[in-house]
């Protein structure tokens, strides 16, 4: 039950969003037991964002997980998400934050896991 919410300061084309969806879907496998089958994504583009006093193109990626993962798995996913955003949107890795939140309670289909 991962959810990845991505805020970017640039505009996304439908093609870029589709590419991000596909590549994030593959990248979530960096976390053992997580698959695209349960992955929910949200993209917010053209956000007014500032980082280090600058308006350079940037992203904030918020990854929410039911359960948790190892430090190594998080390192791999951060590297992969950052590389994807650099490849697809041309964002500099130094302008990308990735935040992880772990949850012990997660609801779906009228119940909880």
Question: What can you see in these coordinates?
Answer:
This protein is of the alpha/beta class and 113 residues long. It contains two helices and six strands. It has helices spanning 14-27, 71-89, and strands at residues 3-8, 40-44, 59-66, 96-103, 107-108, 111-112. The radius of gyration is 14 Å and the shape is globular. The model has no long low-confidence stretch (mean pLDDT 97).
Q: Percent range for helical residues?
A: 25-40%
Based on CA atoms alone, the radius of gyration comes out at 14 Å
Order of adjacent strands in the largest pleated sheet: 2-1-3-4
Q: How far from one another are the termini?
A: 9 Å
User: Which descriptor suits the 3D outline?
Assistant: globular
Structural class: alpha/beta
Individual helix count: 2
Question: Which stretches are low in confidence, meaning pLDDT under 50 for 5 or more residues running?
Answer: none
Number of strands: 6
Short overview:
The chain is α/β, with parallel strands linked by helices and 113 residues long.
Topology (SSEs and partners):
Layout: E1 3-8, H1 14-27, E2 40-44, E3 59-66, H2 71-89, E4 96-103, E5 107-108, E6 111-112
Parallel strand pairs: 1-2, 3-4
Antiparallel strand pairs: 1-3, 5-6
